[in-house]
Amino acid sequence: MKAITYAEYGDPSVLSLNDVPDPKVGPGEVLIRVRSASVNPVDWKVVAGYLDPMMNVELPAIPGWDVSGVVEAVGFDTPEFKVGDEVMAYARKDWVKGGTYAELVAAPVRTVARKPESLDWHQAAGLPLAGLTAYQLLTRLGAKSGDTVLVHAAAGGVGILAVQIAKALGARVIGTASEKNHEFLRGLGAEPVTYGDGLAERVRALAPEGVDVVLDFIGGVLDVTKAVLADGGRHGSIVEAEVADEGGLYLWVRPDAEDLAALADLADQGKLTVPVADVFPLAQTADAFTVSAGGHVRGKVVISVSS
């Protein structure tokens, strides 16, 4: 099969398109014929070696954890899926080796859910990691109907999904973003505020009693979070582990088929969509990494693998 591989850590220039053996399909796994994969910041950080202290990496490796595609084969004892099923997955394993930037990927069923009918292949590939991150942070913080939720970086890849999920839970949502993204956030049902100096005062002007839940998807905002949090409020971050020292939750997203199925259900109810900012062919994955690393993308960067 064709796959993007890297044999050493580095910038996107270490990526190359190569012929590699098809992956084996173990018990409790499915082999997915990849239609689309998506780029998340963690993907180029893995390639750069930033996660080497915490994850085993076997080089050469295929990067990528998000995927949408069609089940091509199933391993032993895998009753959850059959050949031909349309699926999506946050296909992270316990080590880095066989990722999703390839024509085929073997994924544990604990990472796989059926693709929402309402999303196309690119959108479905962009949902798993970012959607699970938003969903798991919201649910673990107990966000519920009637809460006021502040989303830092609401126009980012995770923030866009967090806004929609929080609205689906019945929450009021305030989202920080640059002014160019304010109208977009209003379209998602959020009340936008401009980040930067005076942010706490602007949030307090909208929520004088404070906010119930704060989600940090950007970092460097802990002081603002504490300044706007209501008594008894909850806050969490996916960026700064230091929040745990301030009564908050530091979250590292986990593959979870049930959570992913819940997101698929929200999508098919018309409550959740995935904006796609750019689509690149598999051979141009390095360019996709460069765009993602630029940090100014509204929506998901996607790799189109097959049609």
From TrEMBL:
It holds the Pfam family ADH_N. The keyword Repeat does not apply. It comes from the Bacteria. Residues 10-303 form the Enoyl reductase (ER) domain. Coiled coil: none annotated. Signal peptide: none annotated. Keywords: Oxidoreductase. PANTHER family: ALCOHOL DEHYDROGENASE RELATED (PTHR11695), RETICULON-4-INTERACTING PROTEIN 1, MITOCHONDRIAL (PTHR11695:SF294). This is NADP-dependent oxidoreductase.
